[in-house]
Amino acid sequence: MENQENPNQETLEKWSKDPKNWIWGIFYYNKEDKRIFPPKKIEGMGITINFANPKSVLALLVALAFFGMVTFFILNK
Q1: Which residue, of 18, 26, 27, 52, has the greatest Cβ tally within 10 A?
Q2: What average pLDDT does range 62-75 have in this prediction?
Q3: C-alpha torsion 45→47→52→53, nearest 10
Q4: For residue 74, what are the CA distances in angstroms to 30, 36, 60, 62, 67?
């Protein structure tokens, strides 16, 4: 029996390939998937953010704030 906390590899691949979990084909949104950074739909193309996971949205905001600060300090030397 499969545990929702630790899904098997087959379930992870099924979620990744399911078009219902992709908004406009580019934004991954799956409430069942607890991973913060799941792989992209096309294998080997890197990772994406699971927008259904609040931790991943927070990670995205922190990264954007960091790069925004770096840009601000570079431009206002």
Answers
A1: 52
A2: 95
A3: 170
A4: 37, 30, 21, 18, 11
